[in-house]
Specification:
With 242 residues, this protein is mostly beta strands. The chain has one domain (2-232): Jelly Rolls (Sandwich), CATH 2.60.120.10. The chain contains one helix and 22 strands. It has one helix at 137-140, and strands at residues 2-5, 11-14, 18-22, 40-48, 53-59, 63-70, 72-77, 82-86, 89-94, 99-104, 112-119, 129-134, 145-149, 157-158, 164-170, 175-179, 184-192, 194-197, 200-203, 207-211, 215-220, 224-232. The strands form four sheets. It has a seven-stranded mixed sheet with strand order 1-20-17-22-15-13-14. Strands 2-3-4-11-6-9-12 form a seven-stranded antiparallel sheet, with no helix packed on it. A hairpin with a 3-residue loop joins strand 2 and strand 3 (18-22).
Amino acid sequence: MITLRKSQARGHANHGWLDSYHSFSFAEYYDSAHMQYSVLRVINEDKVAPGTGFGMHGHRDMEIITYMLGGEIKHQDSMGNGAVIKAGDVQRMSAGTGVRHSEVNASDNTEAHLLQIWLLPSQQGLPPSYEDKTIPYEQKLNQWRLIASPTARSQSLMIQQDVELWATILDAHHSITYDIQSTRCGYLQVARGQVKLNGQLLSAGDAAMIDAESHLQLQALEESELLLFDLPSEHQSTAFTA
């Protein structure tokens, strides 16, 4: 079964410096029907104005992934890490027992565009950690590129949960497939472009919750960038509830 989550149905908050769309309940946006999906707790599509950003603040017991779509963000945290991540980069922070960080658009004139993703970890109280990677465009072009996994295989980021995050950039009219095991479910996020998923149309910002569907067929109607989460089924997941 494929259940669509249309872009315009997401929560929306425009703070001037931050324009944010929430796929799941977040901050002042609450929807009891969209609290999380499996262990996927947050997908926020954020556009951050130049010279602004998120000041130093704290998290605990959450796997936080930032997937950059445009512009750049300067990261600093209480573990001593500092980095500037740009379009094509991905960042992973395991909050664990506690971490403080800031994410600021240091550009004077360019908006930063990103997806902020939170996953519930497999257990609480893990040591905090950080890493980031550049994923070359060519590695995602018309093929799946593993972005994050619990074993860090295939040069992916390591996350503390039984989840694989894949990404692809499809040329117009290109097709790609993905098979999901019977004990798993999926969540597809269209970052940009327009695709058909098993015949159903999805545009930028749309998502699909995928359950009891073993084979996915995706066709791009224009150049498109997609994220696919391969998740434990609800009854199989190992995580506390946020």
